[in-house]
Amino acid sequence: MSIAAAIADTLEEQPHHNKPQKAGKLTPYWLMLPGLLWLAIFFVVPLVTLFGTSLMTPVPGGEVGEFEQTFHFANYWNTLTDSTYYVPLFRSFLYAGAATLLALAIGYPLAYAIAFKGGKYRNLLLVLVIAPFFVSFILRTVAWRQILADEGPVVAILRWAGLVSETGGVYPSAFAVIMGLTYNFLPFMTLPIYASLERVDHRLIEAAGDLYAKPITGFRKVTFPLSLPGVVAGTLLTFIPAAGDYVNAALLGRPSNTMIGNRIEYTFLSVNDYPTAAVLSFILMASILVLVLFYVRRLGTEDLV
Amino acid sequence: MSKTDITKAEGDLYLENLVKSFADFTAVDNLSLHVPQGHFFALLGPSGCGKTTTLRMVAGLEPPTAGRIRIGEADITYEKPYRRPVNTVFQNYALFPHMTIWENVAFGLRRRGVKDVTKQVDDALALIELSAVAKRKPAQLSGGQQQRVALARAIVNRPAVLLLDEPLGALDLKLRRQMQLELKRIQTEVGLTFIHVTHDQEEAMTMADTVAVMNNGVIEQLGPPTELYESPHTAFVANFLGQSNLFGAQVVQTSGDDVILEDSDGRFVMPRARVADRVNLTAGTRVLVGVRPEKIHIEALDDAAPAPSHGNFVDGVVVTSSFLGVSTQYEVRTSGGDVINVFAQNLSAREMLSTGSRVRLSWLPVHGFVLSGSEDINAGVEQELVLS
Question: How far apart are CA B10 and CA A296, in angstroms?
């Protein structure tokens, strides 16, 4: 059942007394007002401004960073066909996709273990999952430099195992960037999956076993489908911020591992090419939106959430 | 029997000296049962009596502490639940919410690798008369419909034993009555062994061929519903199954086929056949005498009329009377001090006996029963009140 339907049900059960209807009808709007104002001022207005910027062209003969509004839609096409920009864009989706899959591979079993085997330690384990948030995002990512450094334990083990050469390392590299992304967004994957696994009725799993399903089949046919809302939420909460992230690529990657976030930052702050940076921002937003819509459609989540 | 055959085992169900102990108490205590194939068997008892634990052991959801479970020749005591030819209709139905009704019913067949499930699933849905909702999800069905789907999902697999765990517990009274008849019809139609766990004595009596009354992890008495009702062997059964008037008495003597008993209200005659097993009948022994309230005849006391020449009777005063439509319920205090319940059928529009009127109660000797005097007179009473 959708959340909206559940809420509607709850509301319907309330007896309707003959109280003054006016105040009651307006209440939801008053409650929404602060949020709507906030969104309007800090999201919609900047978005419109940004869109305006994306259509500007340099002032002829002007200085660096001087632009005028010319409604130059060709900015979009020019940017999309420039490999300086579309390569990092694809790379972003590639890294974010890889990090999402890794986070799912790590986060699902973790959430499953906490939900089904956690027992009385459940809450403690959940606190441990979010414990990294007590340390700044940047600091934690910098810490990964130490972990993956040539003198660090990871490389030592990999060298010993012969997985990297005696002089080779793993930082900076695409591998390090993906590791960083995976690590940083793991809680966003784990918590929603935990929330939906925790709601799965154990009697359904018993029923599956009673109906000749081996434990693994019971998981595949019952537990996993019922945890899909959490998987969808978790992958979105991981993939979307990971695709736009620039901290991990900046701290753990080489210039050849640049992601779209880094490219936008560089174009905006170093090149002072504001229209192109704005165009990139819109392209990133649009591509994420399309990917997410496609993904949610495929899984038919309207039934599941 | 080889391992691969277990999922296809069939025959009678045997529970042999089954024990289930948890940390601090014994839920099922040395229980032995034999349920013939195709029987509708009810395990009846108050909550906590061990009936559900017994069921879960048969289903394989709970490992027994000791004892054996067999179906025919196959020992399934420690077999994995998904390998047993046993299916369960769960108390909360446990339908898979993300699947359609059709897929729910097909689930078991598919897991067993049945190639073409279409016909069997369609037939099962037709049997429960829910073909029309096959494409819906469980949440879109009413409680009664979900209950029938849970039944179809289990019987479509033709298990050797079908377990029903309080399957009607969540339904309202009217629907429950309807489903009782429905369940009985389906059982007769498919001919599977049904083990039905319930705390509702009426439910057990309506449907089952054999009822086992359980209390504190043991079976108090087992038999056809009429036998249990008419000849309870323990105070618990007498009180839990319907209502009984129980009062203490003393054996005076046995003469031929009759036993003569005495209490503060006088003497009673009981045929020997109405005395429960293991009751000591030497003179002076304390016993319990029981009579069902509807077996007692009540009439206004006519001092002029001579005392009846046969039957058992006591005189008393009406304490309360309540008109229930089909019958009138009286509470009568006898001159000896016992309180006796009487259900008088409203056969004619005769006047109700008012509170305080003097009455004579009488019943045929064959309608009474005698229990051991060591029985707890109130066993099974409280639970019944709590649950109803």
Answer: 47
Residues with Cβ within 8 Å of residue B109, at least 6 apart in sequence: B117, B120, B121, B156, B157
pLDDT band at residue B2 using 50, 70 and 90 as cut-offs:
very low
Which one of B87, B96, B146, B153 makes the best mutation probe of the A interface by having the most chain A beta carbons within 10 Å? B96
CB of A240 closer than 8 Å to CB of A292: yes
Q: What is the pLDDT of residue A299?
A: 78
Residue carrying structure tokens 């969104």:
A39
CA distances from B189 to A282, B104, B153, B155, B222 (A): 67, 22, 16, 11, 25
Gap between the Cα atoms of A78 and A65, Å rounded: 18
pTM of the prediction? 0.81
Q: Cα separations (Å) of B228 from A256, B196, B238, B369? A: 85, 17, 8, 12
Per DSSP, helices labelled H in B158-279 are 173-190, 201-207, 225-230, 235-240
Chain A nearest C-alpha distance from B23 (Å): 18
Is B81 within 8 Å of A217 when comparing Cβ atoms? no
Does residue B353 have a pLDDT over 60?
Answer: yes
With left for phi above 0 and alpha for psi between -120 and 50, is residue A162 left, alpha or beta? left
Q: What is the DSSP letter of A44?
A: I
- B200 contact partners, CB below 8 Å, separation of at least 6: B44, B168, B169, B176, B387
To the nearest whole Å, the CA of A241 is away from the closest chain B CA by: 30
Closest CA to B240 of B253, B225, B262: B225
Residue B108 and residue A221: Cβ atoms within 8 Å?
no
Dihedral of alpha carbons B155, B158, B159, B161, sign: positive
How many beta-carbon contacts under 8 Å exist across A and B? 62
A201/B90 touch (CB, cutoff 8 Å), yes or no:
no
For residue A262, pLDDT beyond 60: yes
Mutate to test the interface with A, among B4, B111, B120 (most CBs of A within 10 A): B111
Q: What is the DSSP letter of A220?
A: I
Q: Residues near A149 by Cβ (< 8 Å), separated by ≥ 6?
A: A155, A169, A171
What the block records as the tokens of B314 is 């006591």
Judge: B94–A206 Cβ closer than 8 Å, yes or no: yes
Q: What is the mean pLDDT of chain A?
A: 88
- CATH fold group of domain A2-9+83-304: MetI-like fold (1.10.3720)
Probe site for chain B from A201, A202, A210, A216 (most B CB atoms < 10 A):
A210
Q: How far is B226 from chain A (nearest CA, A)?
A: 33
Estimate the crossing angle of helix A174-199 against helix A137-148, to 10 degrees. 120
Give A-chain residues touching B76 at CB under 8 angstroms.
none
What type of residue sits at position B1?
A: M
Q: What are the tens digits of pLDDT across the range A209-233?
A: 999 999 999 999 999 999 999 999 9
Token pair of A155 as six digits: 């490389």
